[in-house]
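pasting for ref
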Amino acid sequence: MNNYFFNQKLLGPAMLLVLFLLWVPTATEAAPQPPEGMVWVPPGEFVMGLEGASNKTPHKVYLDGFFIDQFEVVQKDYERLRGANPSKFTGGDHPVEQATWYEAKGYCSKAGKRLPTEAEWEKAARGGASTLYFWGDDIDPKYAWFDDNSEEQTHPVGTRQPNAYGVYDTSGNIWEWVADWYEKKYYERSPAKNPQGPETGEERGLRGGSWYSGARHLTLATRYWSDPYVRNSNFGFRCAKDAPKQ
């Protein structure tokens, strides 16, 4: 700020205070309004990964704020936009499954969105938690559909309890494709800000576990991977979207 404004011979103390408050950036800014069906994940740092596994090396990651779908993409929306439903367990409000990674990417693009990065997915899934699951360190069926309670099928989205961000089904129901190529050792060299995953690879990442998974595969740090052309009744997705430019 020009020293002119601090010249007390020209401006009184009260006016100086007003100008100073107008000039200093606010510590926190109001969160942008999420698009319909999405929630806001605020910018900031979190610890990604988990001790004790070679492909989950804990590391700090800073992410810009972004939007993510509150629910996994459901069959009625997928069919409306893509004109087909590849799912095995049919039901309009059930998550779409058996979509390849490329089909998931195409759906998100057509909806004006994108697949979340692996880091974005984990931050959104954690909802601020640092425990094994977003609700704590012990499995709890009221938060997830998995092998103990799923009856070997998917279930309508949003029928378990959400995390602190208001995101549903990040543990269980369906594995979710992420944008990144999968690499076992990537966490050891991952950029500290907005990591996008390896530049190349053979398999794409999946996160969250499914109706078929045991409790250990539902943890927030669990990583899975598959050929992006594979169709599997355990695989679905949700979309993300960049925050508007300020």
